[in-house]
Design brief:
Strand content: 15-25%
Helix content: 25-40%
Order of helices and strands: HHEEHEHEHEHEHEEEHEEEEEEEHHE
Bound molecules: nicotinamide-adenine-dinucleotide
Strand order of the largest sheet: 16-15-14-13-7-12-11-10-17
Number of strands: 17
CATH superfamily of the largest domain: Dihydrodipicolinate Reductase, domain 2
CATH topology of the largest domain: Dihydrodipicolinate Reductase, domain 2
Radius of gyration: 21 Å
Number of domains: 2
């Protein structure tokens, strides 16, 4: 087999970029200044302070909010917005705000997003969409009832190899994905002594955060997004195994779960297999996938040194993938984390509102990435029992 490197320019020349990217507006790049700006409210100054709302030509950051003063300051600093609210519940009373990005902790997402949508505002939510099947239903109902846009901010969806895979599936050059492996490893969660699962309060006492003992399969979207986000197929059955965590977080937590690592094998509605890992307690880091077809395979590069390889039927091994930054407005073409995905998420949500269309990761796609993990977690608690995943799509 030959190894033929391909340059970024060669690859881009042969790619239908707008289609590959996952919506992002009809032309991909906003050529003309938009007719108006969406007035956004941003909630949550941790992860939420790493997006590009102030740089999107179709967006104006109208207000920011966090319960914690230092987190609120992060938002003011990043987005240059001086209008602040002490809580989401106050921000959503502001009638001049059209849409809200919710970057609160995972257990709050459905409550917060439902409150946003019930005020008639469009809503972007950090992952996961929800933590129970009932919450998934509630979210879908709130979106439909209020006739607003909802998008989930799944970063794996806009990693460049995922965009490449979407393009190849769409134009037929990959064929059917017969087997996919995806993984999300994050060893700092709930394991290390000074981890993200607890933080000191004003008096310096350690308080548990929502990440304390958080069940790995309730955070599945960075893995499921690599398949659902490429083919839009649905995960219909699962058997999942889990191993317990060794720290206190996994002996006593709000989720009654001992699990720190989980590995699920799903069957898809196209009859294919999907191996999906989420682990907090292994020496590995990051989000990664491998997609296998009958005569094509794409293996993402990874933290442990795995190289990017697109192996084609004619024996070529393409070892450099393209980036897709040219799909974005110029100011937004830089990487703020998670494989360059943040500006794409920002721009797609804004474009969907301006063009009055559903965003790429709409509420059904969000739930199709989230609910399978909820069922997988139940399977793991039952020793790997094979369980069916309910379908939430419209009839
Ligand atoms: N790659 C990814 O997609 C990715 C990466 C990191 C985090 N996340 C997600 O983003 C979200 C935020 O992550 P994080 O690490 O910043 O979490 P975090 O728990 O550190 O921060 C959440 C923030 O929300 C604020 N908040 C909670 N309730 C609020 C309210 N009612 N009004 C205003 N502010 C409120 C909190 O004060 C806190 O600052 C999480 O849901 C997480 O799952 C996703």
């Amino acid at each position: 087999m030959s190894t033929e490197p391909i340059t970024r320019r060669d690859f881009i020349a042969s790619v239908g970029l707008a289609a590959a990217a996952g919506a992002l507006g009809s032309a991909g790049v906003a050529q003309e200044p938009p007719a108006r700006k969406v007035r956004m409210g941003i909630v949550g100054g941790g992860f939420g302070a790493g997006f590009h709302w102030h740089e999107d030509p179709g967006c104006e950051v109208a207000a920011v909010s966090d319960l914690l003063p230092d987190r609120l300051q992060n938002l003011v600093n990043r987005y240059g917005c001086q209008k602040t609210y002490g809580a989401l519940e106050e921000l959503i009373q502001d009638d001049t705000i059209e849409a809200v990005a919710v970057f609160s902790g995972a257990p709050d997402h459905v409550r917060h997003c439902t409150a946003v949508m019930n005020r008639g505002k469009h809503c972007l939510s950090a992952v996961p969409a929800g933590l129970t099947l009932e919450e998934c239903e509630e979210l879908i109902d709130a979106k439909a009832r209020n006739n607003v846009k909802y998008m989930m901010a799944e970063t794996s969806y806009y990693r460049f190899p995922t965009i490449t895979m979407r393009r190849m599936v769409e134009d037929g050059s990959f064929g059917e994905i017969l087997y996919c492996e995806a993984e999300y490893y994050h060893p700092e969660i709930g394991t290390a002594a000074n981890d993200l699962s607890r933080w000191p309060d004003k008096e310096g006492n350690w308080q548990r955060t929502w990440r304390w003992g958080f069940p790995p399969m309730l955070y599945p979207t960075h893995s499921t997004g690599f398949l659902v986000g490429v083919t839009r197929e649905r995960l219909v059955e699962v058997s999942c195994l889990g191993t317990p965590g060794q720290t206190e977080a996994f002996q006593d937590n709000a989720y009654n779960s001992p699990l720190a690592n989980a590995s699920a094998l799903f069957k898809t509605n196209r009859g294919n297999m999907f191996r999906c890992n989420v682990m907090w307690d292994v020496w590995a880091h990051g989000e990664r996938a491998q997609w296998f077809g009958e005569s094509t395979a794409l293996l993402m590069d990874g933290w442990a040194g795995q190289p990017y390889t697109l192996r084609t039927a004619d024996g070529k091994a393409i070892q450099q993938g393209p980036d897709y930054f040219q799909l974005l407005p110029e100011k937004m073409r830089y990487d703020t984390g998670h494989g360059g995905s943040h500006p794409f998420i920002t721009h797609e949500f804004i474009q969907a509102i301006l063009e009055d269309r559903e965003p790429a990761i709409n509420v059904y796609e969000a739930v199709a990435m989230t609910a399978p993990g909820i069922v997988a977690h139940n399977s793991a608690l039952r020793g790997g029992e094979q369980l069916k995943v309910p379908n939430f799509d419209p009839a």
